[in-house]
């Protein structure tokens, strides 16, 4: 029996993770659940899975959760960081699934590693903002970092314990998002509703916008750099609209190994939970004949500059990846709330990156990372106020 903590249990990934628990009730048990503000759904999850502990982000949500969950066997932890950390480091937990959105779970993820828990990582943002710290901690503690992002999960499967010295290239696939075929004029007019309609994956709002701008792929390039310890020039992106090939690895003899599967996040989540075993899938297998033709093309970095910005941030190093991530989060929120247009997202991020060189050094500690993150959010928020209305 593997005992899991799910950070972000009320979200898209969190609910898929609980579906995996349902499918493997004899092998998985839920010890800790943590969410943001959706106390109603978390209370339902508590009633069903009876975790030892549960946590929410705010005091208002905690008050509501205490009312809804009643006096059960579950301890409702303090709200905010303390609760999240306690959920992630509970002594009975073996695996922590980090699937909250944003960057709130960075400290909890680091604490889980320090406590020797296996970390199943969906939340790429924490690795983008503090990759060096997380990888150093995982190495020092001998803790496995198992990628849940389908692309990195695919690469993990292709590598299958092989030495990355034989790898010449990681090839991340990208669906291309809902605007793959739009020209610049049309892109400038897209609405949040258009952007939230992803062609192949069901997911939360922030990652849906990142997929439309291709920033999601950019963040994944940075994530891959840390997870697999390869330089930026050895990490490539191809557009593959069918999302059947989840990613590939090219070896020095020219062979390319690919991982294929249906587009369902339960599969990579289950892989992380079951690793190194493989369990029966909770979904029907891929029908290659029905899937039909598989297409691959180069991403258009002119129409989708966010991908190039992520490469620039990775190559530049220092505080840039942290700043890129924070500025993107603020810009995406501004787009979702109609304060800026779609094409202004990369414009805002460029300004933050370029300004970051004047004063921000390379973060070497968690407090440096948080300081860079705070600076970038404040700078980007201020920049938004200076833009012409979209
Ligand atoms: N969805 C996908 O297909 C997919 C694929 C690969 C990677 N990912 C990554 O997985 C992460 C989650 O994505 P998602 O699509 O599941 O997002 P989502 O549906 O928006 O869910 C986000 C989850 O995080 C929780 N949360 C927000 N702020 C929190 C805080 N301060 N403390 C604790 N929990 C907090 C939310 O709680 P409330 O709802 O209760 O507020 C919710 O449970 C993201 O980093 C994303 O990039 C997602």
Name a few traits of the molecule.
390 residues, alpha/beta, 7-stranded parallel β-sheet, 4-stranded mixed β-sheet, 14% strand, globular, binds NADP nicotinamide-adenine-dinucleotide phosphate
Helix content: 40-55%
Radius of gyration: 20 Å
Spatial order of the strands in the main sheet? Answer: 4-3-2-1-5-6-7
Largest sheet: 7 strands, parallel
The H-and-E topology, N to C, reads as EHEHEHEHEHEHEHEHHHHEEEHHHHHH
Number of strands: 11
Low-confidence stretches: none
User: What is the CA-CA span between the terminal residues?
Assistant: 53 Å
Counting H and I runs of at least 4 residues, what is the number of helices? Answer: 17
- Gross morphology is globular
Secondary-structure content class: alpha/beta
Mean pLDDT: 95
Which small-molecule ligands are present, each listed once?
Answer: NADP nicotinamide-adenine-dinucleotide phosphate
Q: Strand content of the residues, in percent?
A: 5-15%
């Amino acid at each position: 029996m593997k005992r899991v903590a799910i950070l972000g249990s009320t979200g898209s990934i969190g609910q898929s993770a609980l579906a995996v628990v349902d499918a493997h009730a004899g092998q998985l048990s839920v010890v800790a659940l943590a969410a943001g503000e959706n106390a109603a759904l978390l209370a339902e999850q508590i009633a069903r899975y009876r975790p030892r502990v549960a946590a929410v982000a705010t005091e208002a949500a905690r008050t509501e959760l205490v009312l809804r969950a009643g006096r059960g066997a579950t301890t409702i932890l303090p709200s905010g960081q303390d609760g999240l950390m306690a959920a992630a480091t509970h002594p009975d937990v073996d695996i922590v699934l980090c699937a909250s959105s944003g960057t709130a779970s960075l400290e909890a993820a680091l604490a889980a590693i320090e406590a020797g828990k296996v970390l199943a990582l969906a939340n790429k943002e924490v690795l983008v903002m503090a990759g060096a710290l997380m990888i150093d901690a995982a190495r020092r503690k001998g803790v496995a970092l198992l990628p849940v992002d389908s692309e990195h999960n695919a690469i993990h499967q292709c590598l299958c314990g092989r030495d990355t010295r034989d790898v010449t290239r990681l090839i991340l696939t990208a669906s291309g998002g809902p605007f793959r075929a739009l020209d610049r004029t049309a892109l400038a007019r897209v609405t949040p509703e258009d952007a939230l309609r992803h062609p192949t994956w069901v997911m939360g709002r922030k990652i849906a916008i990142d997929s439309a701008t291709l920033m999601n792929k950019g963040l994944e390039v940075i994530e891959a750099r840390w997870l697999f310890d390869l330089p930026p020039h050895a990490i490539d992106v191809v557009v593959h609209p069918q999302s059947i090939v989840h990613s590939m690895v090219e070896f020095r003899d020219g062979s390319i190994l690919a991982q294929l599967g249906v587009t369902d996040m339960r599969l990579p989540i289950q892989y992380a939970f079951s690793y190194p075993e493989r369990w029966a899938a909770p979904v029907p297998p891929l029908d290659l004949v029905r899937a039909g033709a598989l297409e691959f093309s180069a991403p258009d970095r002119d129409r989708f500059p966010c991908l190039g910005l992520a490469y620039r941030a990775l190559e530049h190093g220092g505080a840039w990846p942290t700043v890129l991530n924070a500025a993107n989060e603020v810009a995406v929120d501004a787009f979702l709330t109609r304060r800026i247009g779609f094409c202004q997202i990369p414009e805002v991020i460029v300004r933050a990156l370029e300004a970051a060189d004047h004063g921000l050094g390379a973060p070497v500690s968690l407090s440096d990372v948080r300081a860079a993150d705070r600076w970038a959010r404040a700078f980007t928020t201020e920049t938004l106020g200076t833009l012409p209305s979209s």
